[in-house]
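S.,

As promised, the zinc ion run. Input:
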Amino acid sequence: MTTLIRGGTVVNADRAFRADVLCVGDKIAAVGENLEAPAGATIVDAGGQYVMPGGIDPHTHMQLPFMGTVTADDFFTGTAAGLAGGTTTIIDFVIPDPKQSLLEAFHTWRGWAEKSAGDYTFHVAVTWWDKSVHDEMGVLVREHGVNSFKHFMAYKNAIMADDETLVKSFRRSLELGAIPTVHAENGELVYQLQQELLAKGIRGAEAHPLSRPPEVEAEAANRAIAIANVLGTPVYIVHVSCAESLEAITRARAKGQRVYGEALAGHLVIDDSVYRHPDPDFARGHVMSPPFRSRHHQQALWQGLQGGNLHTTATDHCTFCAEQKAAGKDDFTKIPNGCGGVEERMAVIWDAGVNSGLLTPSEFVRVTSTNAAQIFNMYPRKGLIAAGADADIVVWDPNGSRTISTQTQFAKGGFNVFDGRTVRGIPTHTVAAGKLVFARGELRAERGAGRYVERPAFTATVA
Ligand SMILES: [Zn+2]
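Predicted complex:
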């Protein structure tokens, strides 16, 4: 399959320039001016548009069994929705149960993900510790292309990693040349605050943010950063939602510590008033952790992206329908946590970030694709438009606009935290692995076309 994207402005993280892009098979074959169209090539007219590396969402949960149910989007519908929004690669999470073999869980997730329409790869969660976990981390890194491990500091009595697990897993990650990542919330504090709120009879979604104030996140972020500092490991903090966590990252980076931060599209534009909405389905629909925050935190997150202390943008795409969320109608601690966004992330961040002048188009590429590719070792296969890279490309019309709606979204679940938001700057075409999979509103996602992306270890100290 040959595709020529003609007449656009290529935007990479380092520069933007006028060029055509020729894709042959699943790779970019040439980038340059006035490229000849080979016979039979599909031509995409990118005049007046930007041609950017396909988005990488480094934080999604497709088909996740969680809190007694399973997310509405599976690996096919979720990755297909991503393609419609210009995201061509996701990094999802293998989450073993405590005491479950990491390898067994990894193979289970690999099986579920075979239906993916877009490329995918996995962080593997370390939810418990013993010698077998230590050994299986090595097998995952050396034989299965895993180079990042996730640690939940929240979800007590479920998947929470205690300090012993954090310390041992961080150290093992360093030995293997993998990067530890953390969901930073103090799970003990969350648990106690939840019990207090329930005892006071505060049981609706409005209690959710009260049980997880910014300090709860900041404590865990500071602790993870301190542990990483003592052990000399890098650390990546997922879904940084508040000024206090960002301050911890900024302080550590100023001292030379290798700390990375991720912001979610939702946290960048939505505030915590959603939890006080009169419609309980609407309020519950926004329950995710960390919660949406009061407005000044959004400004801090944008400053983090601008200042280079936050590096990636993600969604934590984890969709549940209203009936699933209603499991917590009388007890907010039973509301399945999660919101969508894989389809909207790029447009929401362009609209709020680039149109406002906070980010340049190259900075947009950096925080939606290139940095994730570099931090998780997929670069330059991903995150760059250059000959030899994967032909994962989004053609972006900066003047096109649309109003996001649950009625027209491709993602499942029937709910959208961005519903009703009008964005200017939208994808017109998405090319994934060289195939035109989205063209002017028409989604041509193919079940099973997505590929598992192996991510080699960084330089290891132990073979
Ligand atoms: Zn998550």
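Residues 59, 61, 316 surround zinc ion (CB under 6 Å). The domain at 2-52+382-397+425-443 is CATH 2.30.40.10 (Urease, subunit C; domain 1).

- D.
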